[in-house]
Write a structure and sequence with these properties.
Blueprint lengths: L1 H32 L4 H20 L3 H20 L6 H27 L8 H15 L3 H5 L6 H17 L1 E7 L6 H14 L5 E3 L9 H8 L1 E5 L2 H12 L4 E7 L3 H31 L2 H13 L11 H22 L10 H25 E3 L1 H18 L3 E6 L4 E3 H22 L4 H6 L6 E10 L2 E8 L6 H10 L12 H6 L22 H10 L3 E7 L3 E9 L4 E9 L2 E6 L3 E5 L6 E3 L5 E5 L2 E7 H4 L13 E7 L2 E7 L1 E9 L17 E6 L5 E5 L1 H8 L3
Parallel strand pairs: 6-8, 13-22, 17-19
Antiparallel strand pairs: 1-3, 1-4, 2-3, 5-7, 8-9, 9-11, 10-11, 12-13, 12-20, 14-18, 15-16, 16-17, 18-19, 21-22
Length: 697
């Protein structure tokens, strides 16, 4: 039972989060257009109806109440349109929508964390109701200050309403006695009829919040009032297809018509009871009957795309299994027992196995690939809220939102991107339209958020057309904080800008709600590097800046170059390698500190010997006997000296045991390990941290 409840809760959270993401994207786009289209209104109504129903099922009463109020609001807007709504009312409507979005997100987050939900929604509900009253009666305040309406007219209207009520048809619905939760069943019936576009009233009115209504409905039935017999008949078609309903009856003004309806109801009731009894007997006698019936319906149904949701942990297990298959396949094909044997059939089989393994790997990885649009669209909300608070007019332009990356990476890059966007909004874009116009720019600022694939990486850029970065100010702050390690004149613009990503660096003169450019950028850098990515910042002072993130598409399986140093094997990611070459002793020079340097493409690069760095015994110590591998990561470029190249190999990244964390392995230039085909362990190098370790930075 508990497992069933947990599964229902997981499904509720997944569905609600998905719907909230859709809503937020819809709200942002509609606010830019300053109106809601009919399709937008229908979509909001549908989503709020879904959230209301699922929240009622999970007994999240307050979530259901807010969703119900917004649903009522959009039911009125759907029926009357937004054409006559003033600009002030439209702005207030969007404020309410975003307020509701924040409320839903906050409460869902509490549910996920197991925290108690908020129980004070009175002010929120009052605001929604007051706004609904305002758009229903836009001139109400003016009329309240004028003379009282004519008494005779009011009496006439009252009499007309009573006469109209007497002409209404009553549809009474009776649920099966053992169905349970009659008030929730009545509530679901009401929402289904609303979605069908039917106008009606019902009693009891508080079925979604009052549990006592269940006993009343069980004893006296659930009453639905329609203006005409035609509408009541339309409702009957829904009732006939609704489970858990014992009977129903329609009572209108015409007695003859009422008798006919009663006879029809009796016949329908008897027929339904007969069919139910027959079905009960059949399923009781043959437990497979129901399953066969369902399968027959599925087989006879037209073909259509079926989507299912899968727990991420299952995909993680699948990826782990595929990784083990890749390792096992390599162990089989590289077994020393078959080396030197001419086995044509075996070789054909291994090639086919490799092909199938690659296809399985590609499919498995594609299951985990999700568009980056979810992260990008959230930035719309950041830009919107900050624009209002800071008084800046900014357009967010999104490009390449369909670019796909691994789910684990998507979950990790949201905060770094948000921080960079906040920095662009706060200290990048100019404070006023006038200032931008004086500088020859468009009155509205622009922030461009773009993503694209390149080989095994995804490149994300966040650029703005604001002030740019004042390198002189950066140098001044770095000098005050004692961060400079060489004369200021020797710093390039790239090196000056990189100072912003040092811990604790800030150019802000005062603390504000939003961080200044550079505040917390060290955390952003660490987050990106933890994913195996790099971050670079460029700027043209006075014209804007651009932050570039290079992130691997996946962290599970990478292409690597196997190298040997003594009896140890190291793996270097292919995307970090620029070139492999041999040199003569004459090509190696030394700097003032004695470090080895090699010239490549008119630039000088330091040489790091792996055997010296990790104290490995090897016979290859002469520079001419080994291989130099020119590697690059972030803003670091240098050459690694190894004994020999073994070859390119697809490797499965395995995390290091947790007990090694106390040794600060990450900062030792080790990113992880992999199991080779012969069973040996290969260390995967972290190119950026290898340089840091070698230079004691």
């Amino acid at each position: 039972m508990n497992n069933s409840i947990d599964s229902m809760l997981d499904m509720y959270l997944f569905e609600t989060n998905t719907l909230l993401e859709q809503l937020e994207e819809l709200f942002i786009g509609a606010e830019m257009e300053k109106t809601l289209s009919s399709s937008n209104i229908d979509e909001i109504f549908r989503i709020m109806h879904t959230i209301k129903g699922s929240s009622a099922m999970m007994e999240f009463t307050y979530l259901m109440e807010i969703a119900h109020r917004i649903e009522d609001l959009f039911f009125y807007i759907r029926e009357n349109g937004m054409e006559n709504m003033s600009e002030a009312y439209v702005s207030e409507l969007f404020d309410i929508l975003f307020q509701s979005m924040d409320y839903f997100k906050s409460e869902v987050d509490k549910i996920q964390k197991g925290e108690p939900l908020s129980d004070n929604i009175d002010n929120f509900v009052t605001n929604i109701n007051m706004f609904l009253d305002k758009i229903k009666n836009p001139a109400q305040e003016i009329q309240s200050d004028s003379a009282q309406p004519d008494t005779q007219t009011a009496e006439e209207n009252s009499g007309a309403q009573e006469s109209e009520l007497r002409r209404m048809c009553t549809l009474s619905v009776f649920f099966e006695e053992d169905s349970g939760m009659e008030h929730i069943r009545a509530f679901m019936l009401v929402t289904a009829l609303r979605e069908a576009g039917l106008n009606f009233e019902y009693f009891p009115e508080d079925i979604e919040t009052n549990r006592e209504a269940a006993s009343y409905i069980l004893d006296r039935g659930f009453s639905i009032f329609f203006e005409s017999q035609e509408l009541a008949n339309k409702a009957v078609t829904f009732i006939k297809n609704t489970n858990g309903i014992r009977s129903y009856e329609i009572i209108c003004g015409d007695e003859q018509e009422k008798e006919e309806q009663a006879a029809a109801q009796a016949a329908a009731k008897n027929e339904k009871a007969h069919l139910q009894e027959k079905l009960h007997k059949e399923t009781k006698a043959d437990p497979q009957a129901e399953l066969e019936t369902v399968n027959a319906k599925i087989n006879s149904a037209p073909n259509k795309q079926i989507l299912i949701s899968v727990n991420l942990s299952k995909l993680d297990k699948l990826m782990a299994l595929v990784g083990e298959i890749v390792i096992t396949e390599s162990m089989v094909t590289s077994s020393p027992d078959i080396q030197g044997l001419k086995l044509d059939n075996f070789l054909k089989s291994t090639r086919q196995l490799r092909k199938l393994t690659d296809e399985l790997q590609d499919i498995t990885m594609s299951l985990r690939m999700v568009p980056i649009s979810g992260v990008f669209q959230k930035m719309n909300r950041i830009v919107r809220d900050m624009s209002k608070k800071l008084g800046k007019e900014v357009d967010l332009i999104i490009e390449g939102e369909d670019t796909e990356v691994d789910k684990s990476i998507v979950d990790s890059i949201g905060d770094p991107i948000m921080h960079i966007v906040r920095n662009s909004m706060d200290h990048g874009i100019e404070a006023s339209r006038e200032e931008r116009v004086r500088e020859g720019k468009k009155p509205k600022g622009e922030i461009v958020l773009a993503a694209r694939h390149t080989g095994s990486e995804v490149i994300i850029t966040i650029s703005d057309d604001g002030r740019g970065i004042d390198t002189a100010r950066i140098l001044e702050k770095a000098r005050e904080n004692g961060l400079l390690i060489k004369p200021e004149s020797e710093y390039s613009q790239k090196e000056i800008i990189s100072l912003m990503m040092m811990p604790g660096f800030s150019t802000n003169e005062e603390v504000t709600e939003y961080s200044g450019r550079g505040v917390g950028m060290d955390v952003v850098k660490k987050s990106i590097e933890a994913l195996g990515g790099t971050i670079t910042i460029t700027s043209d002072y006075g014209f804007g800046s651009c932050t570039t993130l290079k992130i691997p598409l996946t962290l599970a399986i990478v292409e690597g170059m196997e190298t040997a140093v003594g009896k140890s094997i190291f793996t270097i990611p292919i995307n970090n390698i620029r070139q492999c070459f041999r040199v003569t002793g004459d090509e190696i020079i030394h700097d003032v500190t004695g470090r080895e340097i090699v010239k490549r493409m008119d630039e000088f690069y330091p040489v790091i010997r792996i055997h010296d760095l990790y104290s490995i015994d090897t016979q290859v110590t002469d520079i001419e006997d080994g291989i130099l591998i020119w590697v690059e990561s972030g803003d670091r470029s240098y050459c690694l000296f190894v004994d020999e190249l073994i070859g390119e190999q697809q490797v499965v990244v395995k995390p290091l045991p947790s007990y090694l964390n106390s040794f600060n392995i990450k900062n030792s230039g080790i990113a992880g390990c992999t199991i080779l085909g012969d069973g040996n362990i290969s260390i995967i190098l972290d190119i950026l941290n290898v340089y840091t370790l070698a230079n004691n930075e």
